[in-house]
Request: fold
Amino acid sequence: MTPGASKRIRTLIVDDEDLARQVLREFLSAHLEIEIVAECANGFEAVKCAAELEPDLLFLDIQMPKLDGFEVLELIGANRAVVFVTAYDTFAIRAFEVHAVDYLLKPISAERFDAALARAKERLSGKLSSAPLPAMELAASARPPAQYLDRIPVRDGTSVFIIPVAKLDYAEAQDDYVALASGGKKHLKQQTISSLEAVLDPSRFLRIHRSYIVNLERVVKIEPFGKDTHVAVLSGGTQLPVSRAGHARLRAFLDR
Amino acid sequence: MHPILAQLRRLMLYLLGWIPLAGMLTYLLAVPGGLSWLEATTVAFVLCLLYAFVCLAAWYPCQATPLERSTLSRFLFTHVAGALVASGLWLFAARILGRMLSGLDDFHGIDRQLSQDYPLLFATGILLYLLAVGFHYVLLALEASREAEARMMQASVLAREAELRALKAQVNPHFLFNSLNSISALTTSDAAKAREMCILLGDFLRRTLGLGEKAAIPLEEEMSLIHAFIAVEKIRYGARLQMEETIDKEALDAQVPPLLLQPLVENAVGHGIANLIEGGWIRLKAECRDGELSIVVENLFDPEAPPRRRSGVGLANVRQRLEARYGNRAKFATSVDGPCFRVAISLPVEIKERVS
Reply:
């Protein structure tokens, strides 16, 4: 082993096309400090490899089978350097919203690739802040409402579940996690309930309590509970607490 | 050109409209006017036939004095003067007619009797002329609205054609970017394959550009475009992409709008095969039956695939183009059958004789 091998940057290549991975491999081979720990051809594999191999750096395609690049990043956590590689220029703003180091467009030039790699190294050495740029925050808040989630990917160890939002019954905040209840099962996901609320369609999901978001289609009735509060009864019989503000919102919805 | 004189049918209808007027004039001449019924009928019908043509002249002052852009005084002056002239002429004609008729046995002394009815005739002439003025303004308004409608129709047709041209000429740029990236990969690992891919890509693009100009092509030509497309995609996707074709010999000669099926196959690759880890097949079937060309494109897909951009745009374009070109003679339907997505279209068979 060469001296300093322990400092090599563990790198994961994720792209469903063999030839696209080949280009990245070739460009990376010129950099001795890089160690390619694995290559993955789809989103599930990528999540699994990321969990098992803990790479420092990912080159991540966006449109792939099973999970797209954003979903992969969401599941493996943002504390790694990620460079998106795609033929689409339309995802750039979203890529920087999720704190990507860089965004490479196919076909990739060697110069542009090296620049991205240099940025990644800066990020890994802590010189480049991973804090979002203000402009990107603005872009995030200006995201059109049409982009509500269709599905929520959840990771359990190295395996991944996909919960279509139509099958989500309710979500419950649990410290830094949310428990997503779907079809009688609960899946834990590292996310705040407010950030989940922001990406769910407000005409289908409602925050009824500090700790609960409910799928409105599941609500059968609202019953008084105690002096000031209520409970929402879901079609499966589950009862969820409803806060006073939540009750007002829920009533407004049901009366419509 | 006068709209009524332009068509014999319209002129006949117009003259028919004068028959009741002639009837009323007959009554006026016979009862208050003191002519015999025979005299009154003859004079009234001849004079009305004549006056029908005189009144057509109202078209020109009406055209020159459009309702919305003329002052009231000009409007009144034009038409009152017109009425006086027309009615004066009519009176003159009545006088000549009276003289001519008085030579006949049955009409002896009619000129004298008729001359007593001049004020009645003059007043009737003025009223009839003004009626004609009103009638012509209605005609003008109708014509204007028809023209506006035609203009609007034409504009919408032009807009749609332009849109269709734009749709037709569209090659998905991401297909190009991804293909170029593949070529870039091959240049170091397999130069011969890189060259092959450049040639295939060039072939596809040249065909696309050539076909965009034509209104319709034989299905065979569209299929060779699809083969060029699949050949390029096969280098990217390798064994993941399998294409199967079942096409009738007869169907190969049927005319189809160019680049109608290529987007369907592109869609099958991009939204079907690209989302499958192990890949899958695309099946294309085409046959002619009972004067209809039916084409089915089927592909495997992952119902739980991540949502993609541009989803459905290609399909919507194909549907619109079919609708614009064939109206309800073409059908377009999509269906999902388990892991299989299917687009079925049918259109009337058109076969162009080959120039040999």
In short: Residues 5-138 of chain A form a domain with the Rossmann fold fold (CATH 3.40.50.2300). Residues 218 and 236 of chain A are 8 Å apart (CA to CA). Confidence is low (pLDDT under 50) at residues 1-5, 132-145 of chain A. Helices of chain A lie at 18-29, 43-53, 69-76, 92-97, 110-124, 134-141, 193-199, 244-255.
